[in-house]
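Summarise this fold before class:
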Amino acid sequence: MSDNELGLFLRTRREAVTPAQVGLPTGARRRTPGLRRAELATLAGVSVEYVTRLEQGRDRRPSPQVLSALADALRLAPSERIHLHRLTKSVDSGFTCMGDAVPPREVRPAVRAILDQLEPAPAVIVNRLTEVLAHTDGYHRLMAPTGLFDSTPANLARHVFTDARARTAYPDWSHQADHLVATLKQGPFRKDVHIAALADELTITAGPEFTDRVDTVPSLPTATGITRFTHPEAGHLRLAYEILDLSADDDQHLIIHLPADEPTAAAMDTLTGRRPGALRAV
């Protein structure tokens, strides 16, 4: 992890909560849309000095009672609360559950069978390096024009940060880049020698576009959302994605894309050559 991942997470979540969400007045001279440190301190029942120490990394082991109070004040979702707990437990531990284990690149037959059942939806299996291990034909039709499969193994992070075609494919490129950095950081990050090697590579090939995000993007990628995508044949698409974790032994993720609106559903039907309605908007 980066040097102060706990402080980064608390600060970004504080800035994401609006005063209205917690029943506070907005005020005319507010410089940030989120909560001030003093407001979070009041809501959590701690001192503003202590919130400052946590965010600056001068205190990295808050008590369970303080963590609970902060989580309540920040309106954290269950996944965010779990992540907050893990951040405090992993500080300076020197332990990584992955050790030096090579990221698995073999996909179990049962998982491949699941992919087959997902056709024609774009779906892909990736490991913790964001390497593409298996995919549906629908995913290949969607991503091949972007150049993702021009190198072997195909790697989502490397592609987004180093291939200019990715900036055309993703109108919200910056959001996609944030998501991939969060994905790489969600484990031990540089304590994992394999992710560290990829991070070193991207530090050189992508420069500040990558390194600035390592310092500012929390290590908690969103598991669901909507991605805007531009395809040379299907045009502008809005794709809803779901990221599902496979078993811990697999150490892999299944990412499924579905049309987020009717125009995208119609465009995807044309792309797959299927009858109208083969891919339904969610």
